[in-house]
Amino acid sequence: MGFPNLKSYYYAALLTSVINAHTTKQPPQWVVLENQLCTNNDLSSTLWTPKHERPRTTDMLPTTKLLLSTWDNCREKLCSAHPWALAAPIKTLHHCNGTFPHQKWEERGITHMYPLYTSEGLIHFPDLQTEFSLPSNFTFAYLQLKALLKDNSIHNRRQTLRTTVTKFEMQCMSATTPKKVLSTCYDSLANLKTDDTWKFMNDWQEDL
How many CB atoms lie within 10 A of CB 120? Predict the structure, then answer.
């Protein structure tokens, strides 16, 4: 009858925190608090690191544990690639190798995993060099990154996966605070189809 899926709505309400955790300008106070109790003081990095690679910590707040548990259960519906999402910040690779110089890549504008892949797999260095104006001496950094991805089986997992990001991932990577976050999360979890929605449902979503 078009009644909202309350379980999906509950999960969506929790998962809006994932997007809010990426706010860089005046982040909510709860983000500041939870960051202080996460590994490397970075909640967003902890979220995007796959469960099997995520560093263990005993200092997390109960709300953080609930968010991580919900995220692990729902991320397949929210992201286009698994277990390493295309929207994952490149700094998450620090959890695979503590010496990985993610700052070096971020300084060149490569802040997420997304630009590193094409439909055929890991992008070749000449193409990456052209797109981001990388100097020739960046070749070693690229080979280091490639070896890290291969050692952790990330490169192989990626080759057969889609290279387009979902609407949810786009909002996480947005430089500004996105709108209708709850609607985005709910639609992804409930798998709503536009043709199956009624007018009152659309009106309800616009109010979220």
Answer: 9
